[in-house]
Amino acid sequence: MNTIGDAKAGKLIGEDSYGNKYYENDYEDEIHLRTRWVEYKDGREFNMSQVEPAWHFWLGYGVDLPPNQTPKEYTSVRAYPIPKHTPAFTGTPGAYIPYNTVKPKISSWNATVAPRN
Fold this sequence. Notes:
The chain is largely without helices or strands. It has one helix spanning 53-59, and strands at 11-15, 21-24, 36-39. It has one domain (1-111).
């Protein structure tokens, strides 16, 4: 309840490769488009980038069938397969940091002492 901010009850639909669990309920009293949710494996440090793309599409009501129940003939094959989905590492030591390849416009000045005439 502390992670999603609401008391919810529903049936377990599936689990992804990270260990996140996906739920759905069909209560008439539930607010529209609030019937699907995810419980992250690590409840304290969670981010939506930890959800796999197919499950993210299901959570956003893009499809009715969850990825674990979709028939193989309806799943697409990527032209360039991604080895494994990785979450965003923003704000962590593993974050992407670009480096500069442009020559600096200003060069640093080093003071040197020269004898006077």
